[in-house]
Amino acid sequence: MSKKLKFIVCFITVAFVTVLLTEFQVVFFGENAAPEKSDCIIVLGCRVYGTSPSPFLVWRLNRGLELYNKGYGKYIIVSGGKGEGENISEAEAMKTYLISRGMDGSKVIAEDKSASTMANLINSKKIMDQMGFKDAVIISNKYHLKRASLMAQSQHIDATYSGVFVSSYKKHEIIGYIREIPAMWKYYFLKLS
């Protein structure tokens, strides 16, 4: 085997193993995330269609409400700004949804400036500090939790996690798991650079 061929085989092997290890991290973290009782629950934003939460966001919100009703947090911080094609901020749509499901509006804190997961967590941490909250349960889709946990750690948020898997949108969830691999690499690269 020529040196060039050996190099190509070695490169492909290393790349394949790196992909597998990254995906394992993502899947393992999402499947094993377990919430603990905390001062608050943070629901990370996701697409809004006009003024209505997308199915992914509805599942996140339902999980947040479920945990709130079980006493996992005294408040819910809903985090997300207004994106392209959205008539209102994700936070406003989320708060409206939770109130429509019977939640006390005074227990829902809207953070409506964020345009990314990192911004969600930076701005939610500011709210936590202002309110005197020490810890949080962070909610997102399972495939997103590992990267969210790395970002939360970078912001010194003491957190546990709870993830959703939207079974009626299985194809989208699988795509999410695949897309998370380069997203994780990008996060690690930017953190190291």
UniProtKB/TrEMBL annotation:
It comes from the Bacteria. GO terms for biological process: Gram-negative-bacterium-type cell wall biogenesis; peptidoglycan metabolic process. GO terms for cellular component: plasma membrane. Residues 39-159 form the DUF218 domain. Gene3D superfamilies: HUPs. The chain crosses the membrane at residues 7-30. Keywords: Membrane, Transmembrane, Transmembrane helix. Pfam families: DUF218. InterPro entries: Cell_Envelope_Assoc, DUF218, Rossmann-like_a/b/a_fold. This is Vancomycin high temperature exclusion protein. It comes from Clostridium luticellarii.
